[in-house]
Design goal:
Its EC number is 1.17.1.8. The chain is α/β, with parallel strands linked by helices and 243 residues long. It has eight helices and eleven strands. It has a five-stranded mixed β-sheet, with helices on one face. A hairpin with a 4-residue loop joins strand 9 and strand 10. The longest helix is centred in the middle third of the chain and has 16 residues. The structure holds NADPH dihydro-nicotinamide-adenine-dinucleotide phosphate and the ligand O=C(O)C1=N[C@H](C(=O)O)C[C@H](O)C1.
Length: 243
């Protein structure tokens, strides 16, 4: 995603990559040198002109560290990384007391729309069985995806009777009424697919989003960064960027 963000930044006229870092050595990307992650705090402090926003797509532990460095430097944070535990989420949330922070499990407009439709459909279809399936490239490390977890939260908000997440399915027991099935598939170079199935008696609703490429997430994150820079400290939502 780091490569995608640099390429996407090059394609638009309203932003410039001031500092790029990675844990392991990486060749320059589109002419942008990528420094060692350990240099990040110093690079942020010395950047001229000052950096407006951090865009982070890494891993949960490093994301917390990058956000801490950005907070120290008074820089707005856009966080796309997924797979956080509760403590890591709390650390990112705490940063929002000092700087503007926008964390989203998915930076595509299509998923933002899917979330609204899923919430409405879940509320409109009481008693229906719900199953969520996500499919991603074989290199993805966290499962289920952050987006699937966001959709599950949305479904549970709309359906108080669904409280048991069943990951995968095996054995010989039938489905219970309180469960939501959750399925994570990993294959090839699939950019990201999310499907929500709602099935009742004699009718089935399937809602699916497919990302055509990972560039859509990079573009959305840069939209968020441009929108977030200069705002007051606080936690912001990607839907606000899309309004
Ligand atoms: N919100 C959204 O719309 C999207 C979110 N994502 C999320 O973004 C994250 C990154 O995805 P992706 O680019 O595909 O992952 P990759 O594995 O391809 O890249 C992760 C990068 O982060 C670096 N990194 C990982 N862990 C650490 C660490 N502990 N310390 C320092 N650097 C670290 C890696 O460094 P190294 O090169 O050394 O391995 C690598 O450069 C994932 O959490 C993914 O789910 C992805 C797409 C869209
Ligand atoms: O790792 C990915 O690739 C993606 N991760 C995000 C997630 O976990 O939901 C968003 C998107 O689906 C791609």
């Amino acid at each position: 995603m780091g490569h995608e963000v640099i390429e996407a930044a090059r394609e638009r006229g309203d932003c410039e990559v001031a500092v790029a870092v990675n844990r392991s050595p990486v060749d320059p990307v589109a002419g942008v040198a990528v420094a060692d992650a350990a240099e990040f705090p110093a690079l942020l402090a010395d950047a001229e002109p000052a950096v407006d926003a951090l865009v982070d797509f890494t891993g949960p532990g490093s994301s917390v560290e990058y956000v801490a460095a950005a907070t120290e430097a008074g820089v707005a944070c856009v966080v796309g990384t997924t797979g956080f535990d509760g403590e890591q989420e709390a650390a990112i949330d705490a940063a929002a007391e000092s700087v503007p922070v926008l964390r989203a499990s998915n930076f595509s407009r299509g998923i933002a729309a899917l979330r609204r439709v899923v919430s409405e459909a879940a509320a409109a279809l009481p008693g229906y069985d719900v199953e969520v399936t996500e499919t991603h490239h074989s290199g993805k490390v966290d499962a289920p995806s952050g987006t699937a977890l966001t959709l599950l939260d949305d479904i549970e908000d709309a359906r108080a009777d669904l409280r048991e997440r069943v990951h995968g399915r095996e054995g010989d027991a039938p489905r219970t009424e309180s469960e939501i099935g959750v399925h994570a598939r990993r294959a090839g170079d699939i950019a990201g697919e999310h499907e929500v199935l709602m099935a009742g008696d004699e009718n089935v609703l399937e809602l699916t989003h497919r990302a055509g490429s990972r560039r859509v997430f990079a573009a959305g994150a840069l939209d968020a960064a441009a929108w977030l820079a200069g705002r007051d400290a606080g936690a912001y939502d990607f839907t606000e960027v899309l309004e």
